[in-house]
C-alpha cells in the first residue's frame, strides 16, 4: 500500500464512492406523487399519537410494521403500495382495503383455525373475517396468560388479535367505516343538533317534544361515542383558544363536543371532505380540501406541528439507517476481499465507503436527535444504532492509524450487524416513544446512557478484532507477525477505552439512581450487567499486566467480552425482573443464544494448540505467541 | 510472612478474585428471577460464602465466596499491592489515582450497606406526617391511651417476637405471651372470626411480608385475653383491602384496635411498620401525576410539600419530583410512589451518611483512567508518527 499508486487504480475508489454518494443524495429528493392525489402532503399532516405530534405517514408506516412487518404493501405485479396511500385507502375505501393481503400469519395451527392456505404468509381482512369469531374466543383466553409463557400458537393469536384491532381502529379513525358519504352525514348531523337538543330539554322538563328529533340526535350521539373510542391517532387539533396545545381529539370525541358547542371543528369537515373526494376518485376536490386544511392549520398557529410533520415524514422517506446497512455491507465485503491478495485500491475503496456509511449513519442519528429533542439513546432501538455508530468511529480511527484493512472490515461488520439488530427492534412500532417519568431527563440520558453505550461499542469492537485474529490465524496464512502484533495493540487499546467508558458509565448510572430513588447501587440486573463488563475489562487488563496472558490469551478474553456485553445489553432484559426491564423480546432470546454459541466456538478455536493454526503451523520456529 | 504478603499482593490473586466476582454477579443476577432482588442480594452479595446443603440435610458447606469476602480480599489485595509492589512514579500516577478512587468506592459502599436506612412516608393530600416508616421491618406496639393529651408507646421489635415466648417491660404492669408469630401472613375469616395464618415469604421486587402475631396479655390476676394483631389491621391500605374482602364475614368489631384495661389504664396493641420520628413535619399540599397527551404514559410525578420545623422556625414549600430529591437534615426525600387515586404521595426517605463517596470516587477513577490511557495513547501516536515519517 505504500507503493505509489497511479493511473485508474488511483481514481477507482473515488469513482465507486462517488456513485454511492449520488445514490444517497438521490434519495434526499422528496418522493414523487404516484397519482393525481397529493398523498405526500396528506402524509405530512400532523396528528397526535403515543404522546407526540407525528405525521400521518408515521402512523401509516408504524401500523403497517406492526400488522405486516414491513413499511409498505407488496402487490401482485411486483409493485408496492406505500404506507400513506394504503392508509387513506383503508379510511376512505375500506371495501378495497379489505382485499389487500396485509395480515402476516406464520403459525400453522392458527392458519388452520382460520381455514387459510398453509403456503401463504399474508392474508386479507376478507379472508380472515369469516372465521374470526373463533380466533376472538381464543384471544380472550390467551389474554389471561402471561406473555412470556405463551406458546407460539398463543403468541400468534395474540398478535393477530392485536393487528385486527389496530386495523379496525385505523378504519374508524376519520369517520365510521360504514359512512359512505361522511360529508353529507355531517351536514345532517349539524342540522339535527339544535332541534334534537331542544327536544331533549323539553323531554327532561316533561313538556311536549318531537320524538323523531330526539331519537335522531340520540342515534348520532351513540354513533360518535363509539367513534370516539375507536379513533387511533388524535387528528383534531385544539382549535379553541382556551384549550391546551396538547389537547388533540379523535373525530368522534370532537363531534360529541360539537353537540354542546353546536359547531363542528374545521378539521373534521376538512378530513370528511378529503375522504369523500378520495372515495369518489375526485383528485381535484381532494387536493383542494387538503390545501384548505393546510392553510387553516397555518392560520391557527400550528406551524410547529406542520413542520414536525413534514420533517418526520422526510426522515421516514430518507431511511438513513437502511442505507447505511447496505453501505456497511459493501465496505465489509470489499475489505475482506482486499485480504485475499486483491489490489490495494480495493481496500482504499472499502475505507471510503465505510466513511460514507458512517456519515449517512451520523446524519440519521442527528436527525433523530433533532426530531425527538433528546440525546441519541432513549431506548433499546436507539442504543443499537448508537453502539454501531461508536464502533465504526473507533474502527475508522484504527484504520487511519494502521491502514491494513482490519479496522474497515471489523467496523463494517459491527456497523452492519448493529443496524440489522436495530431494524429488527423497530418492528415493534414507534421507535420515538415518549419516555416514562424516571427516564425523562436529558442530562442523564446524555451522560450515563451515552457513555455506557460507547462502552458497549468498544467491547464489541475489541471482541470482533479478536475474532479477526483467530479466524485469520486458524484458517489462513495471513496472520503475519506484523499483523498479529498490530492486532494485539488494537485490542489492548480498545480494551483500555472500553474500561474507561464502562466504568464511568456504570458509576454515572449509580449516581443517577442515587438522584432518583436514593440508592447508588441496588444490584438490579441492568446494573449488574454493566458491572460485569467493568469486571471483565479489568480482568483482561490485570491478566495482561501480570503476564498471565499474552497475545492469544488477550484475544480469547476479548471474544468472551462479546458474551458478557451481550448479556448486559440484551440478556438482562430477558430476565423479566428489575427496574430496567423494558419490553420482553421473544425472538431476541433465540438469537442471543445463537450469538453466544458462535462466540464460544470462536473462543474454542482460539484455544486450539498452535500446530492447528495455519498461520503458525507453516512457519516453524516463528516467534509463536504463547497463551 | 513474606510469602503471605506476596500472595496478598499478587496480580494472580486480583485476576482470580475478579473472575470469581464475574461469576458471582452472574449467578446472583439469574437468582433474582426465582428468589427476588432483596433475598438474592442478601445471599449472594451481602455474604461471606454461598452455601450448599443437601436436600433434607441440616448442615451446609461453603461452595463459593460471597460478595463481602471477594470485596474484602480485593481490597486487601489492592492495599498490600501498593504497600509491597508499587513504587510511586509519574508514569504510574494514573494507576494510583484509579486505585485510590476504587478504595473509596469499596469503603463507601460498605458504609452505605451498614449505615444507611431506607424508609417511606406516605401522605395523603392535605395530610402531614412527622415520622417515616420502614417497609420491611415491623414492631409490636403497646400504646397507653389513658392520657387525653398524649400517648405512651412501648415498641417491641419484630426480631424479638420470633425469639421469645414472653416479653416484659419495666413500664408495663403485665407480661405479653407470644403464642405465635408469622413473618408473612394471610387473613381469613373462620366462623365469624378474623384469623391470620402463615404464608410463604415474599420474594418479588415489590412484594413485602406482612407479619402477624397472637399475643396473650397476662397480669398477676390472670389473663386479659388473647389478641390476634397484624399490620393487616393497622395499615390503611391493607385494612381497606381486608375490609372489602372479609367485611361481610366477620363483625365490624374485629377490625377495631385490640384494647384492654389494666390498673385503670387503657392500652391498645398493634403491629405496625417501624417508625422513625423527625423533629419536623412534612405536609403534602398537592400531588401531581402528569401524563403525555392522549396516553397513560407517566410524564412526571411531583409532590408539592410544606416543611415545618418548629425548632428552627422553618416553614417553607418544596417541590419534590422525579430525579429531583429534597436533601434535608441528613435525609433525602425522593418521589417514590403514589396513592391509587393520585391523591397522595409516597416519599422514599433515605439516610445515608456516605452518599457522597461514589461521586468523589467517580471523579478520581475517571481522572486516573484518563491520565493513564491518554498518556499511553499519546506516546503510541508519537511513535507511530516517527515510524511513518
Notes on the structure:
The complex is a heterodimer of chains A (627) and B (389). About 2% of the residues of chain A have low confidence. In chain A, β3 and β4 form a beta hairpin. In chain A, α13 runs antiparallel to α14, α17 packs antiparallel against α18 and α20 crosses α24. A two-stranded antiparallel sheet of chain A has the order 1-2. With 627 residues, chain A is mainly alpha-helical. In chain A, 68% of the residues lie in helices and 3% in strands. Chain B is an alpha+beta fold and 389 residues long. In chain B, strands 4, 5, 12, 13, 14 and 15 form a 6-stranded antiparallel beta sheet that branches. Chain B has a 4-stranded antiparallel beta sheet with strand order 3-18-17-16, with no helix packed on it. At the A-B interface, α21 and α22 of A face α2, α4, β14, β17 and α8 of B.
The low-confidence runs of chain B, each spanning 5 or more residues with pLDDT under 50, are: none
Number of strands of chain A: 6
- Beta-strand content estimate of chain B: 35-45%
Specify the overall morphology of chain B.
globular
Mean pLDDT across all amino acids of chain A: 89
Write down how many β-strands of chain B occur, each being a DSSP E stretch of 2 or more residues: 18
Helix content of chain B: 25-40%
Strand content of chain A: under 5%
Major beta sheet summary of chain B: 6 strands, antiparallel
Number of helices of chain B: 8
> In terms of quaternary structure, what is this?
heterodimer
Structural class of chain B: alpha+beta
The residue ranges of chain A in which pLDDT falls below 50 over 5 or more consecutive positions are: 577-584, 620-624
Query: Counting H and I runs of at least 4 residues, what is the number of helices of chain A?
Result: 25
Largest sheet of chain A: 2 strands, antiparallel
Shape of chain A: elongated
Q: Domains counted in the coordinates of chain B: how many? A: 3
Order of helices and strands of chain B: HHEEHHEEEHEEEEEEHHEEEEEEEH
Query: What would the average pLDDT of chain B be, to the nearest integer?
Result: 88
Distance between the termini of chain A: 31 Å
Amino acid at each position: 500500500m505504500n507503493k505509489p499508486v497511479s493511473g485508474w487504480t488511483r481514481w477507482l475508489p473515488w469513482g465507486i464512492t462517488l456513485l454511492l454518494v449520488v445514490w444517497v443524495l438521490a434519495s434526499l429528493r422528496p418522493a414523487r406523487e404516484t397519482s393525481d392525489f397529493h398523498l405526500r402532503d396528506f402524509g405530512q399532516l400532523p396528528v397526535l399519537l403515543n404522546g407526540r405530534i407525528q405525521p400521518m405517514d408515521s402512523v401509516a408506516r408504524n401500523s403497517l410494521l406492526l400488522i405486516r412487518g414491513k413499511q409498505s404493501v407488496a402487490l401482485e405485479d411486483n409493485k408496492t403500495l406505500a404506507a400513506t396511500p394504503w392508509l387513506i385507502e383503508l379510511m376512505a375505501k375500506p371495501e378495497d382495503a379489505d382485499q389487500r393481503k396485509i395480515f402476516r400469519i406464520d403459525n400453522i395451527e392458527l392458519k388452520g383455525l382460520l381455514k387459510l392456505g398453509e403456503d401463504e404468509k399474508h392474508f386479507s381482512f376478507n379472508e380472515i373475517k369469516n372465521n374470526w369469531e373463533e380466533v376472538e374466543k381464543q384471544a380472550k383466553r390467551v389474554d389471561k396468560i402471561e406473555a412470556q409463557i405463551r406458546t407460539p400458537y398463543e403468541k400468534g393469536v395474540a398478535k393477530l388479535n392485536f393487528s385486527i384491532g389496530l386495523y379496525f381502529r385505523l378504519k374508524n379513525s376519520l369517520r365510521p367505516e360504514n359512512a359512505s358519504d361522511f360529508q353529507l352525514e355531517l351536514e345532517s348531523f349539524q342540522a339535527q343538533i339544535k332541534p334534537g337538543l331542544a327536544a331533549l330539554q323539553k323531554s327532561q322538563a316533561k313538556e311536549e317534544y318531537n320524538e323523531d328529533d330526539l331519537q335522531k340526535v340520540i342515534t348520532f350521539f351513540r354513533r360518535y361515542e363509539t367513534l370516539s373510542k375507536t379513533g387511533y391517532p388524535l387528528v383534531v387539533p385544539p382549535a379553541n383558544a382556551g384549550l391546551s396545545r396538547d389537547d388533540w381529539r379523535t373525530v368522534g370525541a370532537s363531534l360529541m363536543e360539537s353537540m354542546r358547542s353546536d359547531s363542528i371543528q374545521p378539521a373534521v369537515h376538512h378530513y370528511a371532505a378529503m375522504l369523500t373526494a378520495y372515495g369518489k376518485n375526485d383528485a381535484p376536490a381532494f387536493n383542494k380540501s387538503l390545501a384548505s386544511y393546510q392553510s387553516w392549520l397555518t392560520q391557527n398557529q400550528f406551524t410547529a406541528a406542520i413542520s414536525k410533520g413534514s420533517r418526520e415524514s422526510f426522515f421516514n422517506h430518507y431511511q438513513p439507517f437502511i442505507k447505511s446497512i447496505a453501505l456497511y455491507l459493501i465496505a465489509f465485503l470489499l475489505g475482506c476481499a482486499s485480504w485475499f491478495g486483491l489490489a490495494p485500491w480495493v481496500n482504499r475503496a472499502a475505507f471510503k465507503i465505510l466513511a460514507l456509511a458512517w456519515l449517512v449513519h451520523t446524519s440519521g442519528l442527528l436527525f433523530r436527535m433533532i426530531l425527538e429533542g433528546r440525546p441519541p439513546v432513549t431506548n433499546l432501538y436507539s442504543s443499537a444504532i448508537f453502539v454501531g455508530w461508536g464502533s465504526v468511529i473507533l474502527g475508522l480511527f484504527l484504520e487511519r492509524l494502521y491502514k491494513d484493512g482490519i479496522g474497515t472490515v471489523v467496523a463494517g461488520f459491527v456497523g452492519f450487524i448493529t443496524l440489522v439488530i436495530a431494524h429488527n427492534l423497530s418492528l415493534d412500532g414507534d421507535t420515538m416513544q415518549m419516555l416514562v417519568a424516571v427516564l425523562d431527563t436529558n442530562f442523564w440520558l446524555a451522560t450515563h446512557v451515552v457513555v455506557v453505550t460507547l462502552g458497549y461499542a468498544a467491547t464489541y469492537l475489541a471482541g470482533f478484532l479478536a475474532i479477526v485474529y483467530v479466524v485469520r490465524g486458524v484458517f489462513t496464512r495471513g496472520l503475519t507477525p506484523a499483523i498479529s502484533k498490530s492486532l494485539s495493540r488494537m485490542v489492548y487499546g480498545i480494551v483500555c477505552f472500553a474500561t474507561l467508558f464502562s466504568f464511568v458509565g456504570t458509576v454515572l448510572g449509580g449516581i443517577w439512581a442515587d438522584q432518583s430513588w436514593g440508592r447508588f447501587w441496588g444490584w438490579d440486573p441492568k446494573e449488574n450487567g454493566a458491572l460485569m463488563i467493568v469486571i471483565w475489562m479489568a480482568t483482561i487488563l490485570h491478566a495482561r499486566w501480570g503476564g498471565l496472558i499474552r497475545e492469544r490469551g488477550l484475544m480469547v478474553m476479548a471474544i468472551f467480552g462479546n458474551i458478557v456485553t451481550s448479556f448486559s445489553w440484551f440478556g438482562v432484559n430477558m430476565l423479566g425482573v428489575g427496574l430496567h426491564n423494558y419490553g420482553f423480546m421473544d425472538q431476541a432470546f433465540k438469537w442471543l443464544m445463537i450469538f453466544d454459541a458462535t462466540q464460544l466456538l470462536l473462543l474454542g478455536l482460539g484455544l486450539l494448540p498452535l500446530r492447528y493454526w495455519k498461520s503458525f503451523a507453516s512457519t516453524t520456529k516463528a516467534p509463536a505467541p504463547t497463551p | 510472612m513474606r510469602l503471605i504478603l506476596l500472595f496478598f499482593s499478587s496480580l494472580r490473586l486480583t485476576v482470580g478474585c475478579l473472575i470469581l466476582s464475574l461469576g458471582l454477579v452472574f449467578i446472583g443476577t439469574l437468582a433474582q428471577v426465582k428468589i427476588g432482588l432483596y433475598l438474592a442480594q442478601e445471599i449472594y452479595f451481602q455474604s461471606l460464602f454461598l452455601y450448599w446443603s443437601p436436600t433434607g440435610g441440616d448442615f451446609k458447606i461453603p461452595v463459593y465466596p460471597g460478595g463481602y469476602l471477594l470485596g474484602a480480599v480485593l481490597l486487601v489485595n489492592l492495599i498490600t499491592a501498593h504497600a509491597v509492589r508499587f513504587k510511586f512514579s509519574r508514569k504510574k500516577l494514573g494507576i494510583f489515582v484509579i486505585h485510590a478512587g476504587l478504595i473509596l468506592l469499596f469503603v463507601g459502599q460498605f458504609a452505605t450497606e451498614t449505615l444507611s436506612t431506607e424508609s417511606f412516608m406516605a401522605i395523603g393530600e392535605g395530610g402531614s406526617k412527622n415520622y417515616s416508616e420502614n417497609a420491611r421491618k415491623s414492631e409490636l406496639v403497646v400504646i397507653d391511651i389513658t392520657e387525653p393529651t398524649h400517648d405512651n408507646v412501648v415498641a417491641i421489635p419484630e426480631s424479638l417476637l420470633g425469639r421469645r415466648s414472653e416479653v416484659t417491660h419495666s413500664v408495663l404492669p403485665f407480661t405479653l405471651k407470644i403464642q405465635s408469630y408469622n413473618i408473612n401472613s394471610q387473613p381469613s375469616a373462620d366462623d365469624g372470626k378474623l384469623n391470620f395464618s402463615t404464608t410463604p415469604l415474599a420474594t418479588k421486587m415489590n412484594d413485602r411480608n406482612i407479619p402477624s402475631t397472637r399475643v396473650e396479655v397476662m397480669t398477676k390476676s390472670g389473663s386479659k385475653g388473647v389478641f390476634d394483631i397484624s399490620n393487616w389491621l393497622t395499615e390503611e391500605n391493607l385494612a381497606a383491602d381486608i375490609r372489602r374482602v372479609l367485611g361481610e364475614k366477620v363483625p365490624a368489631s374485629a377490625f377495631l384496635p385490640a384494647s384492654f384495661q389494666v390498673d385503670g389504664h387503657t392500652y391498645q396493641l398493634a403491629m405496625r411498620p417501624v417508625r422513625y420520628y423527625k423533629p419536623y413535619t412534612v405536609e403534602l399540599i398537592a400531588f401531581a401525576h402528569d401524563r403525555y397527551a392522549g396516553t397513560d404514559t407517566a410524564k412526571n410525578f411531583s409532590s408539592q410539600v410544606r416543611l415545618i420545623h418548629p425548632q428552627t422556625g422553618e416553614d417553607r414549600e418544596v417541590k419534590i419530583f422525579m430525579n429531583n430529591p429534597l436533601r434535608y437534615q441528613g435525609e433525602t426525600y425522593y418521589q417514590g410512589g403514589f396513592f391509587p387515586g393520585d391523591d397522595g404521595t409516597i416519599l422514599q426517605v433515605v439516610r445515608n451518611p456516605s452518599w457522597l463517596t461514589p461521586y468523589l470516587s467517580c471523579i478520581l477513577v475517571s481522572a486516573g483512567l484518563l491520565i493513564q490511557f491518554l498518556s499511553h495513547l499519546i506516546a503510541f501516536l508519537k511513535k507511530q508518527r516517527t515510524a511513518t515519517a
